[in-house]
Amino acid sequence: MRVLIVSDEESKYIWDHYEPDRFKGVELIISCGDLKAEYLSFLVTMINAPLFYVHGNHDISYKVHPPEGCECIDGKLIHFKGLRILGLGGSHRYNLCHRGFECFVAVMDRYQPTYLLHGHQHLNYGRNQRIHQYVNTKIINAFGYHILDIS
């Protein structure tokens, strides 16, 4: 299954110069937060695949103007085509900026998910490695956009 993951920064490549062939075969879109609602609505319309999202730390406008055609999975466990997806949104108040949450280590140790997708760590902030491995979990930074092929 091809999954488009997005977060933090709207891609001009996608929004201004959309090329349908680039996203051929994408069956699911997951937003890890901090994107404009209009951008998510654009993605779900143009790619014609379900879009699940969680709130990032800057997504306070979603309460008044949620992305159209998209489903919030913040705090929910959902099933999609054989995948179990748990949505955990960002913190609006925090003091460990851009470091993540230690509790996710306990989640990975206990449940050993295949993937942990996250946003908030901009690759242009000196964090240029998109994918990390922690025991059996592949941790993927969704900054901008990334296509994940799940077999």
Q: Please, could you describe this protein's structure?
A:
The chain has helices spanning 12-15, 37-47, 103-111; strands at 2-7, 26-31, 51-53, 71-72, 77-80, 83-86, 115-118, 131-134, 137-141, 144-149. With 151 residues, it is α/β, with parallel strands linked by helices. It has one domain (2-149): Metallo-dependent phosphatases (Purple Acid Phosphatase, chain A, domain 2), CATH 3.60.21.10. It has a five-stranded mixed beta sheet, with helices on one face. A three-stranded mixed beta sheet has the order 7-9-8, with no helix packed on it. A two-stranded antiparallel sheet has the order 5-6. It is globular, with a radius of gyration of 15 Å.
Mean pLDDT: 88
Number of separate helices: 3
User: Helix proportion of residues, in percent?
Assistant: 10-25%
- Counting helices, strands and paired strands, the structural category is alpha/beta
CATH architecture assignment: 4-Layer Sandwich
The largest sheet is: 5 strands, mixed
**Unreliable stretches:** none
